[in-house]
Amino acid sequence: MDNSLIYLLIAFVLIDIQAYYFGYVNPPSVLAWLQKASFIVFTFMLIPLLVYVLYSQAGSVGRLEKHGIESHAAIQHAVGIANGQGENPTWVFQLNSDEKNVLAFYRQSLSSSSWKQTEDTGLYLRYALEGKTLTIAQRQSAIDNTLTIMIRTKP
What we know:
Layout: H1 3-25, H2 32-58, H3 60-66, E1 75-83, E2 90-95, H4 102-111, E3 116-120, E4 124-129, E5 132-140, E6 145-153
Antiparallel strand pairs: 1-2, 2-6, 3-4, 4-5, 5-6
Helix pairs in contact: 1-2
């Protein structure tokens, strides 16, 4: 799970507690309505959304393996809402910062599977199987190192 989202969830819960206190328990004479509205928005919209995203991120590696794709040991956590759900799943993973051979791992791992390689540019790998296309790309910058995996069904 993404640590920044966990910290954001903790901050939202603290703000929600404060909004409840100043909206219902000890309301000020002015702007109590704003505290009540904040409590409603945080309790019924923002906190459940963050909990859903974190829950989805927690199962993203498992969803990847259900498609017959092995997870690399350098995967730290899923990023954002790209966590492998739906008909055309996409995953974005944060990798250990010094990991450079992820594409080589997938090149070797998928060579023994039923996926057939159709493209290898050095920047990304593309495979095909039964009307589906699998694309694996690694992006490394000075700030982060991410792995993107997409499965698309051909129309």
